[in-house]
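Input (structure):
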């Protein structure tokens, strides 16, 4: 294990977010196209990046300050709540007013789960609704539940013990997911949306945030081996779907490990991946990725409905996909520069007090 990096900013980290969110939204836009089955893996890349950044920030924050918890939770709320609550409020208002035939009765009966960030457990114990306007919010719920308790661990446990705890939990998550898949193989949400079976990706990011870094040669060997096993599993089942027995057991953990190793190389290299770091389009999409992720599915489903009604276009036609993508990027950009940025500026009133040494980098805070 190495010391925490003193690097204040990782150029291109937003570009990684851009890649992650684009892979997810295209998998949703082309939901019936087998060529985009792999796109869901972008969620795990999101988880790893998030775990890395949040852990790094928490470990660089002075634990002796009384504001340790208060400022963290307030800053988190300022980033997450405004757009999410706006989306939920508009969505449920529209459902209550316009859904006269009760086609969206699932949402009417379970609305409070979404406002409490418990929708993933709703999916676990009930089902994923066929009208999947908000199904993607399960991942946001998992993150918020994890970060509700993780700062407590960081506060009371030393970095060395925290690293050991994470290394212990990673195989526990894998075993629990395998057990649940074995017991409920036909109930996809039980093991996919479950907080306790999907936090291995966040834990891998947290591991990197703790300074746990494998040396270059072994890391490269591990990366090649992991990718080989991952591709072998996909070829064996002839599918990259998240529902195959391979993915439901070892696959999720392999994807998280690959993302961890990729981020490890990314954060340690000053010269590689320069094209990614200098890609303005990907970095911009990564900058507004939170809005893109939250808004893309409802925008796409509304676009699909309107195009089918007025033009007879199929849901996966290039016109529908392009329209959905452009509308998502446009509305997400407007959201970022009007609603989100206003609340992000309020973070300056709740700074994370840096531990000495090293000082908490302001740019790293902005990335979260």
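Output (sequence):
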């Amino acid at each position: 294990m190495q010391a925490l990096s003193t690097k204040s900013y990782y150029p291109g980290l937003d570009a990684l977010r851009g890649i992650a969110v684009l892979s997810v939204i295209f998998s949703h836009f082309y939901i019936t196209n087998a060529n985009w089955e792999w796109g869901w893996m972008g969620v795990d890349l999101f988880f790893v990046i998030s775990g890395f950044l949040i852990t790094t920030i928490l470990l660089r924050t002075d634990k002796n300050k009384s504001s340790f918890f208060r400022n963290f939770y307030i800053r988190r709320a300022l980033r997450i709540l405004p757009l999410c609550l706006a989306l939920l409020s508009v969505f449920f208002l529209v459902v209550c007013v316009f859904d006269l035939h009760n086609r969206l009765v699932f949402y009417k009966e379970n609305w409070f789960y979404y406002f409490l960030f418990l929708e993933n457990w709703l999916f676990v114990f009930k089902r994923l609704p066929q009208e999947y306007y908000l199904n993607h919010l399960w991942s946001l719920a998992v993150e918020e539940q994890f970060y509700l308790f993780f700062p407590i661990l960081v506060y009371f446990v030393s970095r060395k013990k925290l690293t050991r705890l994470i290394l212990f939990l990673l195989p526990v998550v894998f075993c629990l997911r395998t057990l649940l898949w074995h017991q409920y193989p036909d109930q996809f949400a039980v093991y996919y949306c479950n907080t306790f079976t999907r936090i291995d990706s966040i834990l891998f990011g947290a591991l990197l945030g703790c300074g746990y870094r494998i040396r270059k040669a072994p890391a490269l060997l591990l990366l090649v081996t992991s990718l080989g096993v991952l591709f072998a599993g996909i070829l064996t089942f002839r599918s990259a779907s998240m529902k195959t027995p391979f993915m439901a057991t070892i696959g999720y953990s392999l994807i998280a490990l690959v993302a961890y190793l990729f981020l490890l190389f990314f954060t340690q290299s000053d010269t590689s991946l320069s094209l990614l770091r200098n890609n303005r389009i990907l970095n911009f999409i990564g900058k507004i990725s939170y809005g893109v992720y939250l808004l893309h599915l409802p925008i796409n489903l509304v676009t699909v409905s309107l195009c089918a009604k007025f033009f007879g276009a199929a849901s996966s036609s290039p016109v529908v996909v392009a329209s959905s993508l452009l509308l998502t990027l446009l509305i997400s950009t407007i959201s970022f520069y009007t609603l989100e940025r206003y609340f992000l500026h309020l973070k300056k009133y709740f700074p994370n007090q840096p531990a000495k040494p090293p000082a908490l980098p302001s740019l790293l805070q902005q990335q979260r």
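Notes: The chain has one domain: 13-349+357-367. Residues 13-349+357-367 form one domain.
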